[in-house]
Specification:
By secondary structure, the chain is mainly alpha-helical. The protein is built from 10 helices and no strands. α2 runs antiparallel to α3, α4 runs antiparallel to α5 and α9 packs antiparallel against α10. The longest helix has 19 residues. The protein is globular and about 55 Å long. The chain starts with a helix and ends with a helix.
Length: about 200
């Protein structure tokens, strides 16, 4: 980041991108306080350089919201997710894969807070958009299937959830390979589902 800062300056949107990327790495390392500080700095720089109606600003909002959600600060995360969704809708439209990502992320938060009825239509819409824009063989489609299956599982709709988990796993294995972390996550979700599903 120091090199980028020297080349483009610390108020440049590319510097904010470097901060954002480092924040993601720190989040993966569970260094949440450091990650949050960088996310907030990146958001501020992007606001100043590109404006708050830009799709990149929506991405920065989404990333900060994801971090807050990871640390169970749902009340802080939700308005950021909603703002990111609104900006993405206006800038990229409802048929863009990024809009599906924003829908999915908000749905994940709603599910985490037990608001299943609010989450379900968002999951369905995200799944449909991803199907239309990226196709059934894309790993992002598998992610949407997996997440929606989790909601169906949580609402005890086991017969609906199981085929979605299985389809998500099949897509991940073909697209990413059996050892990929995403494939392993989906496989673990299916195995847990099968072990806990009532007979």
């Amino acid at each position: 980041m120091t090199i980028i800062g020297k080349v483009v300056g610390e108020e440049h949107y590319r510097y904010a991108t470097a901060q954002n990327n480092l924040a993601g790495l720190l989040q993966d390392m569970l260094r949440f306080e450091e990650a949050e500080a960088l996310c907030r700095q990146a958001l501020e720089i992007t606001s100043k350089t590109l404006g708050e109606s830009h799709s990149v600003y929506a991405t920065r909002l989404n990333n900060l919201a994801e971090l807050l959600g990871t640390t169970e600060r749902y009340g802080e995360a939700e308005p950021l997710y909603r703002q990111a969704l609104e900006i993405t809708q206006k800038t990229l439209g409802e048929e863009h894969p990024d809009f599906a990502i924003r829908l999915n992320n908000l749905a994940v938060l709603l599910k985490a807070t037990g608001r299943y009825e609010e989450a379900e239509p968002l999951y369905r819409q995200a799944l449909e958009i991803t199907h239309r824009t990226l196709g059934e063989a894309h790993p992002d489609y598998a992610t949407r299937l997996n997440n929606f299956a989790g909601l169906l599982d949580s609402t005890e709709r086991y017969d609906e959830a199981e085929p979605l988990y299985r389809q998500a796993l099949e897509i991940c294995e073909k697209a990413l390979g059996v050892e990929h972390p995403s494939t392993q996550t989906v496989r673990a979700n299916l195995e847990l589902f099968l072990s806990e599903k009532p007979d």
